[in-house]
Design brief:
Elements (H helix, E strand, L loop, with lengths): L1 E5 L6 E5 L8 H8 L4 E6 L3 H13 L4 E6 L8 H13 L7 E6 L1 H13 L5 E6 L2 H7 L4 E6 L2 E8 L5 E3 L9 H18 L1 H16 L2 H21 L15 H10 L8 H18 L5 H13 L15 H8 L12 E4 L5 E4 L4 H11 L1
Parallel strand pairs: 2-9, 3-4, 3-5, 5-6
Antiparallel strand pairs: 1-2, 7-8, 10-11
Helix pairs in contact: 1-2, 3-4, 5-6, 5-8, 6-7, 6-10, 7-8, 9-10, 9-12, 10-11, 12-13
């Protein structure tokens, strides 16, 4: 078992990583039940994991009440949020209760936001079942839904009580979803650890092929890296946490162009976005072109998109820039970009010329 603590004072919580943990989760969740049933919100794709979790709770003497929602990005909507909160109220969820989010990032974001606003805040536990959620979205307390104007534009910071990660659940994950999650793993090396990026180059294929040791190492490393950053800058005020958005400004524009659909998964958009961020950095003379080429090559070798064409995006550069204008991190009309001086040398630039971005995207397309 590996335990990483997210240090946030009175709101600190553990991230527990262990093979087979889902089947033993009852022991961790029982103390939160307070003699009441625990509500589990899951998506339709994880029915087998839902039954495993319910059996674990039953073995610990805890009743459970499942709520199953449609899988996919479309569930991060006002309509689903309303339906979920109404159902939680119908079930009599109290402020002292803890709702379990079982699924990928969509379920974690949605349940986190619902519990943040339900009765002005009740508890929740993340049990992520995708690699992307395990290494990124389940840790850090960012919750929310999508709006017509863009991704994650409505939400709240709401930290979970704990995060339970079982690497074994990845055995049932479709290869495309696994690759999408791997993009978020690689991102940690690109941000500030060139040695970890080199580890990914050497071990990424094994991880994607199902090597248990490689998966567990990547998950534990990624969670610890994110925990350190979140502990330093929980609400993204100092700029430190903003580094986690590497590839996201470009990537969210691609997702918006794809209609926030399964046409382009979030992790795929992040991979393409990181490639574009490094490509733009190289075009601006900020980093060596060889570094940008190395990043793009690793995405290709991992079966991930390395730019606009590979992501299936054929749109005017001006329209992609317009999507960026809706970035929730925009301030005083300026859009912050995560750029790079090299692999492991990401930095925040709040003064990027959008005309230069548009010209770059026009040439990249």
């Amino acid at each position: 078992m590996s335990v990483v603590k997210v240090e946030l004072g009175a709101r600190s919580y553990p991230v527990i990583i262990e093979s087979g943990l889902l089947g033993r989760a009852g022991g961790h969740l029982a103390p939160l039940a307070r003699g009441r049933p625990i509500v589990i919100v899951a998506d339709a794709n994880v029915s087998a994991h839902l039954e495993t979790l319910r059996a674990a709770l039953d073995a610990a003497g805890v009743a459970s009440e499942p709520i199953v929602l449609p899988a996919g990005e479309g569930s991060k909507s006002w309509a689903t949020l309303e339906a979920l909160t109404d159902r939680l109220l119908d079930l009599g969820v109290e402020r002292g209760d803890h709702v379990v989010a079982l699924g990928g990032g969509v379920i974690g974001d949605l349940v986190g936001f619902a519990t943040a606003i339900l009765k002005r805040g009740c508890g929740f536990v993340q049990v992520p079942t995708t690699l992307l959620a395990q290494v990124d979205s389940s840790v850090g307390g960012k919750t929310g839904i999508n709006a017509r104007a863009g991704k994650n534009l409505v939400g709240a910071f709401h930290q979970p009580k704990m995060v339970l990660i079982d690497p074994d659940v990845l055995d049932t994950l479709p290869p495309r979803q696994l690759r999408a999650g791997y993009a978020e793993v690689v991102k940690y090396g690109l941000i500030d650890d060139a040695d970890f990026f080199a580890w990914c180059e050497a071990n990424g294929a094994k991880l994607l092929a199902g090597d248990a040791a490689a998966r567990t190492h990547a998950i534990a490393y990624s969670v610890a890296a994110k925990a350190r950053i979140v502990g330093d800058d929980e609400f993204e005020t100092s700029g430190r946490r903003a580094l986690l958005n590497l590839g996201h400004t470009f990537g969210h524009a691609l997702e918006a162009e794809a209609g926030f659909s399964d046409r382009l998964l979030h992790g795929e958009a992040v991979a393409a976005g990181c490639a574009l961020a490094f490509g733009f950095s190289a075009a601006q003379g900020l980093c060596d072109a060889a570094d940008a080429a190395r990043v793009a090559a690793h995405w290709r070798e991992s079966g991930l998109p390395d730019g606009l064409a590979a992501a299936g995006i054929d749109a005017p550069a001006a329209r992609l820039v317009e999507h960026m204008r809706h970035d929730k991190k925009a301030s005083a009309g300026r859009i912050p970009f995560l750029l790079a001086r090299g692999i492991g040398q990401t930095y925040l630039d709040r003064d990027v010329d959008l005309g230069a971005v548009e010209a770059f995207l026009g040439a990249a397309g």
